[in-house]
Design a protein that fits this description.
Blueprint: H1 2-24, E1 42-50, E2 55-63, E3 79-84, E4 90-96, E5 111-117, E6 120-126, E7 132-133, E8 140-145, E9 151-157, E10 171-176, E11 182-188, E12 203-208, E13 214-220, E14 235-240, E15 246-252, E16 267-272, E17 278-284, E18 299-303, E19 306-310, H2 320-326, H3 330-344, H4 347-365, E20 376-377, H5 391-415, H6 422-438, E21 443-444, H7 445-468, E22 478-480, E23 485-487, E24 493-496, E25 499-502
Parallel strand pairs: 20-21
Antiparallel strand pairs: 1-2, 2-3, 3-4, 4-5, 5-6, 6-7, 6-8, 8-9, 9-10, 10-11, 11-12, 12-13, 13-14, 14-15, 15-16, 16-17, 17-18, 18-19, 22-23, 23-24, 24-25
Helix pairs in contact: 1-7, 3-4, 3-5, 4-5, 5-7, 6-7
């Protein structure tokens, strides 16, 4: 019976390891520089009337020099179809590739549906089949318009049309200046009153140049007093590149002077791929000198959905973080290797390695992380809906599990007691509480669940090893079945039968 149980556990562990590797195997990735942008293509427009519904469908198609339908890499589609009612208002729009297949915009939705009533627009999102769908947090926006047709309020709702909180607020309000430009955004609670959003402010005011281009933004609390964001600055000042993208952000104090934010830099500079996604961002002090952050990085390169740390010269660093980020399956490989080493080493060395690994966990979860206002996610299994869809979410979930697997293995190898099952849970709760109190990272129930599960899997690994190798826990005697000799762990007494001898 015992052998059967051990065999079953062994098969489970092999299956879990295999599934983990498959789940986080890197996607083929996307070449963000390949293809043509909308500026390099011609946009063709064709409208067809539908006499039965009194509506019309306008098709916008990007074509190349050979008049062939072509994907615009900066727009994320080749064809956009807009359905308009008899009043000319858009009631639905969907996006397609050059072959007519639905494409997902911003990794979120395939289309948008609009419903109009009085001074309101009901905005809902569509899946690849044209059915209504929910985004990660909300599914519907109710937008209020002024007499000029400008948006003045947005409120967020779930699929049951219940108000839902998004990034710390339930809605937003826009104000406009005499030129008709939006100059202020106010974040609202459920009752329409100003509320601090997750970034640490309730009001954001824009500064614009004579042409209307936003040159900066500044933050205020519910009463309209200047306040710091969760990043430690009172505002941001922008510079733009020739393509209309932010090339530099300078973090500012209440007077508009450069200030070092909580992450340790005052200026952040960006470069972009041809499709408009961020390629690199580099960090500088208020004098414009390169500055290193927590893990020695001077910047980050965005490689698809992974991020790689960069050195002063803009080269990718050789470090553990880059190996794990660039090759996520190495988390599983390293975890298996550590578990094996913890099991085969003498117990004294296993103790040292386990203690070192605890320090590593604290390093990864608490040390050298950006601080800010407390950020939380107290929804258990909040990523379940997108686990199979998004590789980045799978990586995060599985990494949280495997982070604690070697810990559980080391703990059970040392103590060989059932109570070690509590340690991963207690340690994870302590980490999340610290993150909540200090603003280091994001405190999440999902992390506690994943860490605890990983620790328990590690305990299973060690239990199976100990049982299969007949390794007894500290303080208990082991018996050589063939010789009949009992060897005690306390003192230096060796007993043979009923006779005991003391070693000199």
């Amino acid at each position: 019976m015992k052998n059967t149980t051990q065999c079953f556990i062994f098969i489970f562990l092999l299956f879990f390891t295999f599934i983990s590797i498959i789940a986080i195997w890197p996607d083929s990735g996307k070449n963000h520089d390949a293809g043509l942008t909308s500026a390099e293509l011609k946009l063709e427009e064709k409208t067809e009337k539908d006499s039965t519904t009194d509506s019309s469908i306008t098709t916008y198609t990007f074509v190349n020099a050979e008049e062939k339908t072509t994907f615009a890499i900066d727009r994320g589609y080749a064809v956009r179809k807009a359905v308009r009612n008899s009043e000319g208002k858009t009631i639905e729009e969907r996006y397609f590739d050059a072959d007519g297949n639905p494409v997902k915009l911003y990794d979120s939705y395939y289309g948008v549906k609009y419903e109009y009533r009085d001074h309101e627009v009901i905005i809902k999102y569509l899946d690849s089949q044209g059915n209504e769908m929910s985004l990660t947090t909300y599914s519907t926006i109710v937008r209020t318009l002024d007499d000029d047709g400008r948006a003045i309020d947005d409120y967020y709702y779930d699929s049951d049309m219940q108000p839902i909180q998004y990034a710390g607020y339930y809605g937003i309000h826009w104000d406009y200046d005499n030129n008709g430009w939006n100059n202020r955004v106010t974040y609202l609670d459920k009752n329409g009153q100003p509320v601090l959003c997750s970034s640490g402010y309730a009001i954001k005011e824009y500064k614009r140049d004579a042409a209307g281009t936003i040159t900066g933004e500044f933050y205020f609390d519910e009463q309209g007093n200047p306040t710091k964001s969760s990043f430690g600055e009172y505002g941001q000042l922008y510079e733009w590149d020739e393509n209309g993208r932010i090339s530099q952000i300078m973090y500012a104090d209440a007077d508009g002077n450069a200030v070092t934010n909580s992450a340790g830099y005052a200026i952040r500079k960006y470069t972009y791929y041809r499709d408009g996604t961020v390629d690199t961002d580099m960090y500088f002090d208020n004098a414009g000198n390169p500055v290193a952050l927590s893990k020695g990085q001077y910047g980050i390169r965005h490689n698809g959905k992974t991020t790689l740390l960069m050195d002063k010269n803009g080269n990718v660093m050789l470090c553990v973080d880059n190996i794990l980020n660039g090759f996520p399956f190495m988390v599983v490989v390293f975890g298996c290797a550590l578990c094996f080493v913890m099991l085969v080493l003498p117990k004294g060395w296993s103790i040292l390695l386990t203690c070192a690994y605890v320090v590593f966990i604290l390093y990864e979860t608490l040390m050298f992380r950006e601080t800010g206002n407390a950020r939380t996610n107290f929804v258990l299994f909040s990523y379940a809906g997108n686990f199979l869809k998004e590789q980045s979410i799978r990586v995060g979930v599985i990494n949280n599990i495997w982070l604690f697997v070697p810990l559980g293995t080391g703990l059970y190898r040392i103590f060989q007691k059932k109570w070690v099952l509590l340690i991963p849970f207690v340690m994870s709760v302590a980490i999340e509480l610290t993150q909540y109190i200090t603003g280091l990272g994001i405190a999440e129930f999902d992390d506690v669940f994943g860490n605890t599960m990983g620790g328990w899997i590690g305990v299973l690994v060690a239990w199976t090893w100990v049982k299969s190798h007949r390794e007894e826990p500290p303080g208990r005697a082991t018996r050589d079945r063939d010789s009949g000799i009992f060897i005690g762990h306390v003192g230096s007494r060796v007993s043979t039968g009923k006779k005991a001898y003391e070693e000199n």
